[in-house]
Amino acid sequence: MKKYEKIIEAFLLICATVATLSVFLITFFIFKEGLPILKEYGIIHFVFGKTWSPTNGSYGAFPMIMGSISVTLGALIIGVPMGISCAVFLAEIAPKSIVKIFKPAIELLAGIPSVVYGFFGLAILVPLIRMHILPIIQKFNGEAYTSGYSILAGAMILAVMILPTIVNISENAIRSVPIEYKQGSLALGATQFETIIKVILPAAKSGIITSVVLGMGRAVGETMAVILVTGNMPKVPGSVLDSVSTLTGTIAMEMGYATPTHQKALFATGVILFVFIMLLNVSATWTMKRLGGE
Amino acid sequence: MSNYMKMRVRNLNLFYGDFQALMDINMNIMENKVTALIGPSGCGKSTYLRTLNRMNDLIDHVKINGQILLDGIDIYSDQCDLIDLRKSVGMVFQKPNPFPKTIYENIVYGPKIHGIKEKSRLDEIVEKSLRGAAIWDEVKDRLDKPALGLSGGQQQRICIARCLAVEPDVILMDEPTSALDPISTLKVENLMDELKKDYTIVVVTHNMQQAGRVSDYTSFFLNGEIIETDLTENIFSNPNDKRTEDYITGRFG
């Protein structure tokens, strides 16, 4: 009996170790491959260099960094208000019958493969932007032009992709606000809307912020959908209608044919991405702790 | 002391779905008096209390008929605005429920949503309300600290102050001391005695001695009905109904 338990224990330990070790191995590997070129080429040069031209040996990742940031920010600008509103609706306003339909539907969004999102964007959003949104913008600015492959398309697709994360976590946070707060507010003569804005959302803010940061992580890391709709031009964007390439997109597109130095440069891009995501996670944990402790 | 009937309840019935929780309730709530509602758990006294400021509206499948008049106006009719009703009939809950905000923000919450913006006016209200709830001296130096950092008894008095800040006429209290220690309980009871000079109070309590100590009138509830309502001293010394006597002397409940 004891031996049997020992074996199970050992097995569980191995499983846990493999999972943990993977993280360290991947980290180690990315840094081992990426750091030398960062040192050789110069971090500042790499991060702020504006030309990414592997054939000529220039590896300035700034356009991709800006690409990732702009697409992610765009996704947050569209997705966060929508996601939080949706969470409020589901948790506070919608009757149960509607929640029963809406909630699984939103959860289903998380299960759609990203290439399908990308394909949808490519087939529907990109032409839509080129043919219907561009003419509207041209009325105000005659010089505006876009192929449709743009930050806007990427941001719209990503906004939908991060919705399930934001909606689910925010909704849980809102639902876990004690009913006593709500009653206290209503009993003072507040309307339902005032109660939501002034009591419920502030009380749920740590969960809501966490949902936003996790959604942001998803947006930064998303590759496939973004490749298909942003046009992949390693150029610092001037407007939301410009094509951009992102950090992840560049790695995925170029790794296949890269020369050894180019490959190292892509790993260095991975290092930047890694640091980016780590910072996000740390700040998420930090805000959670800080707000949770209040 | 006035003999004005602040609230009058006529033939009130309440149903949760098919279950009838309140049966043909009639009651007069006298101005500037404390009315205690006593009775065993599940007898409908909290449900009844919540009909008086329409807090039951939050629950699905609740049906109400009958009349509740506040200063002559039926609070379930179109003549009565829900927001105004809750402004004039405040509520203090069983579990202290200050918002996760500072003490100051808790008190000004009500006045602010009712449109008071000037800082000086709000400051005045905060001091007046906290003094009214007999907690000003304890918290005046830390108004900017979170209300949740206070003790349970202090939190409950903050909730009473928060309620006073919107200047209600009637204050409903749903077992306001059941989560408090004896000393805090005593403070809240003394406070009720003070408050009735300016307000009309209806209090649900499980504690017979408390009903005896704080109230002028007492209603005994059983299975959704009022068995009897009378001056508190009569209920305790000389109840009309056998069931009231049994409950008060502790034979059931």
From TrEMBL, chain A:
One of the GO biological process terms: phosphate ion transport
Gene Ontology molecular functions: phosphate transmembrane transporter activity
Subcellular location: Cell membrane
Keyword Cytoplasm part of the UniProt annotation: no
CC annotations in GO: plasma membrane
Membrane topology, from the record: Multi-pass membrane protein
Transmembrane segments: 7-31, 61-94, 106-129, 149-169, 265-286
Domain ABC transmembrane type-1: 65-284
Keywords associated with the record: Cell membrane, Membrane, Phosphate transport, Transmembrane, Transmembrane helix, Transport
UniProt similarity note: Belongs to the binding-protein-dependent transport system permease family. CysTW subfamily.
Function in brief: Part of the binding-protein-dependent transport system for phosphate; probably responsible for the translocation of the substrate across the membrane.
Protein name (database record): Phosphate transport system permease protein
Native source species: Marinisporobacter balticus
TrEMBL record, chain B:
InterPro entries hit by this protein: AAA+_ATPase, ABC_transporter-like_ATP-bd, ABC_transporter-like_CS, P-loop_NTPase, PstB-like
Stretches assigned to the ABC transporter domain: 7-248
Record has Nucleotide-binding as a keyword: yes
Main subcellular location of this protein, as a coarse class: membrane
GO CC field: plasma membrane
Superkingdom of origin: Bacteria
Family annotation (Pfam families): ABC_tran
Alphabetical list of PANTHER family matching this protein: ABC TRANSPORTER I FAMILY MEMBER 17
Protein name: Phosphate ABC transporter ATP-binding protein (PhoT family)
